[in-house]
């Protein structure tokens, strides 16, 4: 079967993204074919494109989408043709995608395709970071870098719902109001303010037990300096480049600190964990504790421009590619 998809034949900048016709393989047992209605845009996809996370070429990008089940393979019982579903699986930058049925989650009636396409990966990331990597508790103060980004806007709302005081960092003044509207009690413009000094001021010198850092190289040392003794740095992304050349002695000198580099792939590896994480995501959205704002929409064919804007930090909140 033929379908249109965004593929790369070499690693590089947004210009390597090609919108082309491809052959979709026949369904294998345990797979479903999904007609995508909305595809989520995530920063991790720029890593696959650039080669930071090398992948075999040619490669169809895409990490999550929402759509309608178009066909089911042998042995599939959890969904049927015509069901609305969301999934977190590769190859989503396409009109049609073959997906393991175990990665498909039925969509509640109150969750739109657009919201679901932007929600599952980012929401699942927020869930495993806040509820599994470091289980935040009411009364704690936490620091979240890139609070106006796609994951940040979900996670800060969620953390506030859980009773945390949330400090967020942003890269421009126009993002301060956005972050405050999505759960941040305090917002620091890291380009014009000293993040460490502001965190000390906000916390009365105590600093914070956990820092969530999806930025990477540019914020690594700042994140360590914002932690209280025995605090945990959760480094979950590389938006500014990967963290390299770390001297472990720094962790001792700064207060017996911990650092972890977790991934959703590990935390959601089992079907049971994947389903539990997804259920929690849909639950907080259904309760109204987390609201999804889609601030950018691009045609799937214009994925290259979407990547340019994402890497230039011109986007806020969630972005959808429409097949």
Mean pLDDT, to the nearest integer, reads 95
Structural domain count: 2
The total count of helices amounts to 10
What's the N-to-C terminus distance?
17 Å
Secondary structural class: alpha/beta
The Cα radius of gyration reads: 20 Å
Number of strands: 16
Helix content: 25-40%
CATH architecture of the largest domain: Alpha-Beta Complex
Unreliable stretches: none
User: Which shape, going by the Cα principal axes?
Assistant: globular
Predict the CATH topology of the largest domain. Answer: Quinone Oxidoreductase, Chain A, domain 1
> What fraction of residues sit in β-strands?
25-35%
In the CATH scheme, the class of the largest domain would be Alpha Beta
Would you kindly provide a written description of the structure presented here, covering whatever features stand out?
This protein has 323 residues and is an alpha/beta fold. The protein has two domains: 2-121 and 268-322, Alpha-Beta Complex (Quinone Oxidoreductase, Chain A, domain 1); 138-261, Rossmann fold (3-Layer(aba) Sandwich). The protein has helices at 44-50, 113-133, 150-161, 176-181, 195-202, 220-225, 249-253, 264-267, 271-286, 303-311; strands at residues 2-8, 18-23, 31-40, 59-60, 64-72, 84-88, 96-100, 104-106, 141-144, 165-170, 186-189, 208-213, 227-235, 258-260, 294-299, 318-322. Strands 3, 5, 6, 7, 8, 15 and 16 form a seven-stranded mixed beta sheet that branches. Helix 2 (113-133) packs across helix 3 and helix 2 packs across helix 9 (271-286). The longest helix is centred in the middle third of the chain and has 21 residues, at 113-133. The radius of gyration is 20 Å and the shape is globular. The two termini are 17 Å apart.
